[in-house]
Amino acid sequence: xxxxxxxxxxxxxxxxxxxxxxxxxxxxxxxxxxxxxxxxxxxxxxxxxxxxxxxxxxxxxxxxxxxxxxxxxxxxxxxxxxxxxxxxxxxxxxxxxxxxxxxxxxxxxxxxxxxxxxxxxxxxxxxxxxxxxxxxxxxxxxxxxxxxxxxxxxxxxxxxxxxxxxxxxxxxxxxxxxxxxxxxxxxxxxxxxxxxxxxxxxxxxxxxxxxxxxxxxxxxxx
Length: 222
Known about the structure:
This protein folds into 2 domains: 48-147, Hemagglutinin Ectodomain, Chain B, CATH 3.90.20; 149-204, Head domain of nucleotide exchange factor GrpE (Nucleotide Exchange Factor Grpe, Chain A, domain 2, Roll). Helix content is 45%, strand content 13%. The chain has helices at 34-38, 47-120, 126-146, and strands at residues 149-151, 165-171, 180-185, 188-190, 193-196, 199-204.
């Protein structure tokens, strides 16, 4: 290459048309802005306060959420402790009730054993032995009553299938239909619940109402 000779003017610089990424010239006036060409754009100035406000709202909601979860966990723990305490107290009540019942029943068992021993020795007045057994029976019923166990009335009562168990029927003309005329086994209830229904015989009056539901005809005659 030959150098520029002395006194020779330097060629005038010419504007170079911009080219795109594929090497093609870009028509004048269609050049992308400098920021777009760099691939970045500055956010509008008025959007910065909005973003800060939105961020503050999100932080506040996150704080409220954490407080709510903490309160919920505390309440769940309190309820679990309450449930466990109720279970312990219920077990304690049940054990205490059973203990009181046994303390009241054991002396009666002692009386019954003494009565049986006395009767087995011979020479005892049967009437005295029977009287002693009646006393023991009364003691047992008293203890049961104190704990909410009572006898279900049967003899002479109107048959009630919800509390009585009919095991026999007898036709009687002088007794109202559905009347209990005999009790084979006593029944008991605990408060409002039937522990065991009494087994009974029910009268059926041929001239009375229709046969009582739930009864079974027995072999006894009038």
